[in-house]
Amino acid sequence: MKLHRNPSRAVNKAIEQFKRQEITRKELIKVLKHYPDHPIGDLVPEYHREEQQKLIANGKIPNGAIIANLDKQEPNGSYDCKAYYVDETFRCVDCGIEHTWTAEQQQHWFEVVKGSIYTQITRCRDCDRTHKKEKQAQQNK
Ligand SMILES: [Zn+2]
User: Fold this and answer.
1) How far apart are alpha carbons 72 and 75 in whole angstroms?
2) What would the mean pLDDT of 120-139 be, rounded to a whole number?
3) What is the reported pTM?
4) Which domain holds residue 82?
5) How many whole angstroms from 122 Cα to the centroid of ligand 1?
6) In a domain, 124, yes or no
7) What is the whole-number distance in angstroms between the Cα of residue 61 and the centre of ligand 1?
8) Ligand 1 is a single-atom ion; what residues have CB below 5 A from it?
9) How many domains is the chain partitioned into structurally?
10) How confident is the model at residue 2 (pLDDT cuts 50, 70, 90)?
11) Is residue 131 part of a domain?
């Protein structure tokens, strides 16, 4: 894809196209990934912003959590709102070792990679790398 000189024009155009259903959510996310810092504005449901504000106002954000930038998450009209990121422990499906998915890593995943807010991490970094290599090797056979 050719990168636009003016990111906000490229993103705003894609957002308008998405609203008119001329492009799919997937295509929109592809554009957003090129400009991860660009806010998606009114594609964030108002009830998500309200829920996040309520959590902050009521002191419901856990210590050490990172408050999410809803404008940078993938556009989703889901009922659920990912208002903040907090360190999560998980057991890797491959090595069986317990790891931490840090708040920073989640922020990167949801706001830069534009991962779905329903993503659950299943593999640690090392196993993920091995898994991807094996998958690639299989495709190249
Ligand atoms: Zn592992």
Assistant:
1) 8
2) 94
3) 0.86
4) 39-139
5) 8
6) yes
7) 29
8) 92, 94-95, 124, 127
9) 1
10) low
11) yes
